[in-house]
## 1
Amino acid sequence: MPSFRSSMTERGWPQDVGIIAIEVYFPSQCVDQQQLESFDGVSQGKYTIGLGQTKMGFCSDREDINSLCLTALSRLMEKSQAGYENIGRLEVGTETIIDKSKSVKSVLMQLFEESGNTDIEGIDTTNACYGGTAALINAVNWVESSAWDGRYAVVVCGDIAVYASGAARPTGGAGAVAMLVGPHASLVMERGVRSSHMAHVYDFYKPDLSSEYPTVDGKLSIQCYLSSLDNCYSTYSRKFACIKEASSPPMSLSQFDAMLFHSPFCKLVQKSLARLAFNDFLNTPKEELTQKYTGLEAYREKKLEDTYFDRDVEKAFMTNSTEQFNQKTKPSLLLATQVGNMYTPSLYGGLVSLIAQSTVESLSGSRVGMFSYGSGLAATLFSLKGSLDRGPDSALAKLIASQADLQCRLKARTEIQPDVFAQTMKLREETHHKAPYIPVGDTKVLFPGTWYLTHVDDLHRRLYERHSLSTSNVATKAVDVAYTKEASISLPNASNPLSSLPQPVLSNSSQQ
Ligand code: HMG
């Protein structure tokens, strides 16, 4: 039998590595932001117009980071039918730490038990909202590396974003995203342009290990986010100039068909798109200015670093970029406005939102800009290219079909009154890290197929069960179909990476 490495070399290294399939999970309970404004006694419009939020998803004591990730991964594996035995790397990104030693990845390994597959690299990565992106980069790097053995990688990112009562509370949320990564992907990670900005700042951090709540300097966090965006865009533009064809124009927003951002709250995302338009304006050669812009001359002398809270600049470029925002960014904010900040999955929830509202024609060949930000801080701007294979059985067509139920799932949630939401937050505060503990949250309200915590024993060991895949609960019944086998999305045979790749190394090495 030829060695795995030599057979891989004969076949060539993997091409078009990126996201093949994606699944999102968000809680079945949410609170309305308008009602929250009244309950919190703030002026009407502050959360809905000022922050751009509509609803906020939240979890009872029945869900924790392990259960969220178990649910997202189970759904991905069922819908993609990738097969647990075909996974060679599993990466988790999260900032919701419930154990200082035991990883979420190790908890997820219980899903692989039946397959007998324990040869799975990868572990948890943490830095605020950035962990999911670090996990994705690790997964892509593995597939593109000499260590790759021909199997898929999976990335799971999840978080429960909760804040103490006060100004930050309406910017919470919760959820998890799982992604199948491999060659011949539907959304290919572009090479040579990925750009990062990393620095040491205390803008948002979680020094109190006994609490779920962060310590936040809201204003500083916004400045850090915007300056990271400026930095990443500048570096991405420089790298783009090196790889672009000589005849194509330099980097500007027009190079992106869609531009997605980590979304702590939707208003900041609209301001971020405007920020890129301001960058483009400052980068425009003097001789082209009058042809491209009118009425903005006064801002030409402005400097990026002096304008993070410059209302005039913000207003002028939000107006200037309205059409671009509506076209390139607004569709990606569906989950962000309806669920809130999911932390590590936020950017990937944006991707799911975009996919759910795309057609094969609109996504094929398009460039999707992805800006990831995690406080502390770590930021990366990268881009995905939609596959050119646009047939009805193509991976891209299947990816889009797999998200057709998104709106239906959002509508099937149960809306909870703000006082009950506040009580739930209080319960989480009081019982976080309690052992032994038996959760009291109602499991009947959970979506079908949701994993939940049954109890924590006196040694802090957590036990989980899965809610039935079909339910008689009226509220969640509407989404039953999305969780059943009939709705599963099989990977396209023609472009299934595994069909054209060497057998997983597991079968070779286990025979030695
Ligand atoms: P705040 O005190 O509510 O701020 O805190 P505000 O008083 O400035 O109000 C917010 C906006 O509402 C303002 O809009 C007001 O004018 C407007 P702006 O002028 O800035 O455009 N407003 C109204 N609009 C319409 N009708 C009204 C009304 N009243 C006021 N009646 C803040 C807001 C975001 C700072 C707070 O919620 C917070 O600290 N959140 C958490 C931190 C955060 O989200 N930071 C974002 C960047 S950092 C990041 O993204 C990382 C993160 O995801 C964590 C991680 O990485 O893990 C957070």
## 2
Amino acid sequence: MPKRILIIYTGGTIGMKQTVNGLAPAADLMAEITQLIELGPAFHENPPQLQTLSYEPLIDSSDMTPEIWLKIAADIEMRYDDYDGFVVLHGTDTLAYTSSALCYFLRRHGKPVVLTGAQLPFGFPRSDARSNLISAIEVAATMPVSMAQVCVVFGSRIMRGNRVTKISANAYDAFDSPRFPLLGSIGIDIQFFSSLHTRAPEHPDLDVRLQLPEDNAVALLRLHPGISASMFRAVCASPGLRALVLEAYGSGNGPTRDPQFLDAVRQAVASGVMVVVVSQPLDGVVTFERYASGSGLAGVGAISGRDLTTEAAISKLYFLLASGASASSF
Ligand code: ASP
């Protein structure tokens, strides 16, 4: 029995056309995908049955919003029983935020949900669009059930949805997963590294009413030499702020010789702002106790984001705020 795969097209370079203002999303990709579907031989064995769902409007992913994350999650859940897997076509700029968001917002994880995009549009010479699309469909159709999860397929890599990050605006391997082992690789054959991975738990009956927080509920601040307590306070004073992702140094370290800075963090936490610390280096993991400068942040109530990427921390905070959970569930 052929696998049934739903392709959800949200926009992005993969389907863009040249306009006078530069590349912009275009609906024609669906015609090209339909052609690809009709040309069954693109899939050598057991070609899957493909169906498509195109969003209106198609967007450049720099226009992505938490509301659209929720829409994608709802569209998948609504059709969950009708398909064996899902492919989401997405712009690369914010793809890692959406793949992370789907890890948290989807309640069911028994089937692969594969995000992909491209560095060059479908019709361009040397475009990676066709190969990424075909690889994503194959992964959605063949990922072992024991590994089924939200993942990103791009270039030669298969990566966990909430550990992936965009590392290049140029290379065909535009994404990597430096804080978590790859789920598999794409070469002549598709290989799944199944011994390393299990799938996320499902919560199909979880009846949480999701209510997205207001705009500006989550902010991101990157530490740098010269940053001051007043800068931190100014960000925390922005109306509606409920959570802050703090990109700290190394293993979660921050300034220790500026008592006002730590005081500002303490006050933010006391006023109800969740302060989540992630690490700046690509492969960094927050281990507060390694340095006194990390203990400082922990001591004033900041939460360790451990091996979360910035993208995953932001989308997880949106999920926690939307579901009414508190800092203790981070
Ligand atoms: N600006 C584009 C987008 O994110 C870039 C891309 O798709 O590669 O939609």
## 3
Amino acid sequence: MKRVAVLASGFGSNLEAILEAQSRAEIQGKVVLVISDRRDAKALERAEKRGIKNLFIDPRNYDDRENYDLALAEILKSEEVDLVVLAGFMRLLTPYFIKSFPLKIINIHPSLLPSFPGTDGIEQAYAHGVKVSGCTVHFVDEGLDSGPIILQESVPLIQEESIETLKQRIQALEHRLYPIAIDLFCREKLQVNGRRCYIVE
Ligand code: GAR
């Protein structure tokens, strides 16, 4: 069984969806650790409620991003984590950290990458007036939301809908897609060749 760590800065609805899927045995992996860079992250509470080890690692205790990431990497290695899942983790990871876990870090982003990377993906797409948006699960490389795409699904925008309903629809999609991607990883069904991620039998 693969050992999974989830890094989350905020509300943790994706974490919740992952834990729900795990409890329904839809993920052949186990979330063993949740880490946040914010003390008040609801994600930590959600982990605590389910008896999952959870840590607040305070960025203010470290001189710079490198040292923060060094500490993160040490914890993840000591927990023998096989997969690092970013679920609304709002810090840019350093190249050192990414190199420490090659093709073992995945992220979910609320747009159809490579469109609208970075923060506020939903807002950016909405402001641009797109007709279709969606979400993307991808491996993390050293660029901004630029690694090989694992799964991606679209939602058409409804004319004159508010950004709130669009957010709800994209997040519902995220909650369905992320557990599927994590399960594929845990069952070793993902093979990456260059930019392309294949799902193998
Ligand atoms: C999610 O919508 C995720 O796609 C986004 O943060 C939200 C976290 O929600 N991530 C990014 O924008 C990363 N660039 P959650 O805390 O409820 O899971």
## 4
Amino acid sequence: MPDPAQAPVLFFDSGVGGLSILGPARALMPAMPVVYAADNAGFPYGLKTDAEINGRVPALLGRLVERYRPRIAVIACNTASTIALAAVRAALDIPVVGTVPAIKPAALASRSRVIGVLGTDATVRQRYVDNLAAEHGADCTVLRHGSAALVAYAEARLRGAPADPAVPADALAGLIDQPGGERMDQVVLACTHFPLVQDELRAAAPHPMTFLDGGAGIARRIAYLNGEAPWPDAAPEGIAVFTRLDESVDALRPALTGFGIGRIEGL
Ligand code: DGL
């Protein structure tokens, strides 16, 4: 019978974006055993149809849960969560935490009543986002922009590629150039890749704006769902599992080490 304290928390994304969710979770629960799963064979999710995401994500999560027996699964991806969260919950018999755009805190904090949602193309077109905007930001102008280029950029930066300020600047311009954009004071980072390049986004901002993401809230949610279940005395070496093992995975080793992940496996 395996030691229940060793049961990991599973983080799932299409690529490295979920590391922005793993980071705050490790900070809050330093002894947490971690399995980080990246569906890099399916990357990028943001350019897929809803049917493709629904056909892929619940089945993959099912295989991962069977192999690693996690205590909790975290869909550390806005695209997968806004499309497939209900299907994943239906497929798994463990608690599932989703990552959805932080529109509520953005609307609460906005003074100008113009907020931006920067995500993937797939996320920004979701009814899930319409509903969040209607529920929490009914008196706000909610600008949306999808940037596949910024997702690819975050992937490249974690593999050591040089900075290119034009990429974050273009992504922000996708919001700012819309009517009302010059008054936008809150930007929801509605793709988990984007907090990884948040400093660069901040540097590219032509006027003051606050960037928000769900990382800290998800960390608290994991702690809450874990309740009194024990953690090991110290975190074991984290595992990263990729749906395709290739040289671009090797280039991630230094970044993964920074998140306590030393072992790389294929699914
Ligand atoms: N990190 C993902 C998200 O939060 C998706 C990036 C992609 O694969 O397009 O939406």
